[in-house]
TrEMBL record:
Its main location: cytoplasm. This is UvrABC system protein C. One of its GO terms (cellular component) is cytoplasm. GO terms for molecular function: DNA binding; excinuclease ABC activity. Keywords: Cytoplasm, DNA damage, DNA excision, DNA repair, Excision nuclease, SOS response. It comes from Wocania arenilitoris. It comes from the Bacteria. Residues 262-476 form the UvrC family homology region profile domain. SMART domains: GIYc. Interacts with UvrB in an incision complex. PANTHER family: UVRABC SYSTEM PROTEIN C, UVRC/OXIDOREDUCTASE.
């Protein structure tokens, strides 16, 4: 479709809710979106200046558009979701994880069976689920089996066949797990009462079953049937124990869906908890890949629609961290305190844990994605013009001004590049002056890189506060590198990040990956510098006096220390002992130095 026609379409779009579809020159759908007002939303793509690069590319590729008008925004949400799943447009977020989930089925038959399945056949029974964990299903089925005697056979138990005596009881009957409905030893009414109670347990309602068991226990006790009363008591304890473990908040909170979102530069993670009578009966986290720098509101809105469809949720109320518009028939609550806020925080914690696990997995199976994500995160957190693929960190080491040294460590693609590490002996500074030492080593480092035409880092980290940062900036100014390389200082006490010409420090979240990466660089620079400082100090302390003897060089010192093991023993040695090790001439010089005093 030509550009003028597209312009005409934009002018004639209705002011109504609906779904719009963008097509490229090959007539392929590249984006699907929904809007409260189609005219305003679609026109905004062509009238605004978009900061996000991918959005600008999308707009350039649009060759034609189509739209579908619906009655409500809720209808638009559902339709958008279905179209995205059907066509998988390139610029829409990716909804991952579409595997099959386990269900619990109450079979539609006389004397219904209760079992787990991953296949749902419409009209074949009543299905509860889907559950995201088979462990949950097994626990529930074990609980039901311990409370109620149900059949496990697949016989067609019609009244005619039972009366004709076609079936015989099996081992399950003799073990006490079944009451023998196949031989008419249990009535259909009695069996269906158990099924009714099981149905409530699967919904998360334990109240009716507990009350029923307590009545039975009392009746057995009054009839002096203490063994039967004890069995019922044990069932009550099992049910109460399960209820205590599964109830998270006030049991009055029922039929509620809880959603929370955690996102980074590339992905959003939406956690879903389904509550019934204070119990979490389902938990699931959906990973969403961003395509056009979507906001948390956009991602959460899309995910809620997808998850509720996927899990067939009919809940009339949802808890979310911020206001979401899902249509009038769903009550949206943003909890501020109490039990509701507690369960929302639990959901957010689940999303965070899921994100952390994915990071660990990516680090192993897809290290490139892990590095790309950290680089993008550091760029955003530190307000850098480009990703810091090459980072260098400086640290000074000295004790009361003695043996001042400095270290420079280099990280490339978020990993230590140890072949690029450098030690510096301070040459131009007298005494303990960290500021002047920092100025010297930064100047020497980047003067050499410039002379050798080596690549410069995208980020320099200075271990220290404003003073050290200012000193490093003087060197960058002298080399005309100010503004060409990003530079920050990190103060140890509160982990404050200082920027040039900004008196107010930046504080990052203590758990953020950006701060952890900076701390790793700082700690590595400190370790590397201290190692060099100790070696230098030890060597100097050991050799200073011997090396000051006129006519005695380094080789002589090494030979003497190898033989005598310490400088003190060299000083106390006799002349003939020294002659054996280093010869007559040098032995006299060493002996006269100590004994001629």
């Amino acid at each position: 479709m030509s550009k003028p026609t597209l312009d005409i379409q934009l002018k004639t779009l209705p002011n109504a809710p609906g779904v719009y579809q963008y097509f490229d020159a090959n007539d392929t759908i590249i984006y699907v979106g929904k809007a409260k007002n189609l005219k305003k939303r679609v026109s905004s793509y062509f009238t605004k200046t978009h900061e996000n690069g991918k959005t600008r590319v999308l707009v350039k590729k649009i060759s034609k558009l189509k739209h579908i008008v619906v009655e409500t925004e809720t209808d638009a949400l559902l339709l958008e979701n279905n179209l995205i799943k059907k066509y998988k447009p390139r610029y829409n977020v990716m909804l991952k994880d579409d595997k099959s989930y386990p269900w619990i089925c109450l079979k539609k038959e006389r004397f219904p069976r209760v079992f787990s399945t991953r296949r749902v056949f419409k009209g074949s029974g009543e299905y509860f689920g889907p559950y995201t964990s088979m462990k949950t299903v097994s626990t529930l089925l074990d609980l039901i089996k311990g409370l109620y005697n149900l059949r496990t056979c697949n016989y067609h138990l019609s009244e005619e066949k039972i009366q004709a005596g076609k079936y015989k009881v099996c081992l399950e009957y003799h073990l006490g797990n079944c009451k023998g409905a196949c031989e008419g030893l249990e009535t259909e009414t009695e069996y269906n009462e158990n099924i009714k109670a099981i149905r409530e347990i699967l919904k998360g309602n334990f109240k009716d079953s507990l009350q029923q068991f307590r009545v039975q226990m009392k009746q057995y006790a009054e009839a002096m049937q203490f063994e039967d009363a004890q069995k019922i008591k044990e069932k009550i304890e099992v049910l109460e124990n399960y209820q205590a473990k599964s109830t998270i908040v006030n049991p009055k909170i029922s039929n509620v869906d809880v959603f929370s979102i955690m996102s980074d530069e590339s992905y959003g993670y939406v956690n879903f908890l389904q509550l019934s009578y204070g119990s979490i009966i389902r938990s699931h986290t959906l990973e969403i890949k961003k395509k056009l720098d979507e906001t948390d509101l956009e991602l959460l809105t899309l995910a809620i629609t997808e998850i509720r469809q996927r899990f067939h949720s009919k809940s009339k109320e949802i808890y979310v961290p911020f206001k979401v518009d899902l249509g009038g028939y769903i009550k949206v609550t943003v909890p501020k305190l109490g039990d509701k806020k507690h369960i929302l925080d639990l959901s957010l914690r689940n999303a965070k844990y899921f994100r952390m696990e994915r990071f660990k997995q990516d680090k192993i199976v897809d290290p490139d994605r892990h590095v790309n994500r950290i680089m993008a995160q550091m760029k955003a957190d530190l307000r850098l013009p480009e990703e810091p693929r090459h980072i260098e960190c400086f640290d000074n080491s000295n004790i009361q001004g003695s043996h001042p040294v400095a270290a420079c460590v280099v990280f490339k693609n978020a990993k230590p590049s140890k072949k690029d590490y450098r030690h510096f002996n301070i040459k131009t500074v007298e005494g303990p002056d960290d500021f002047a030492s920092m100025e010297e080593v930064v100047y020497r480092r980047y003067k050499r890189l410039l002379d050798e035409k080596q690549p410069l880092p995208q980020l320099i980290i200075i271990d220290g506060g404003k003073g050290q940062l200012s000193s490093a900036l003087k060197s960058l100014d002298a080399l005309n590198l100010r503004g060409k390389i990003a530079i920050i200082g990190i103060a140890k006490r509160l982990e404050e990040l200082f920027y040039p010409d900004d008196p107010i420090p930046l504080y990052l979240d203590k758990k953020s990956e950006t701060l952890k990466m900076i701390q790793q660089l700082r700690n590595e620079a400190h370790r590397f510098g201290i190692e060099h400082h100790r070696n230098k100090r030890s060597k100097t302390a050991l050799n200073t006096e011997l090396e000051t003897i006129p006519g005695v060089g380094e080789k002589t010192v090494v030979e003497l220390l190898k033989y005598f093991k310490s400088a003190k023993r060299v000083a106390n040695a006799k002349l003939d002992e020294l002659e054996v090790v280093v010869g007559v001439s040098r032995a006299e010089k060493v002996y006269n130095y100590y004994h001629g005093k």
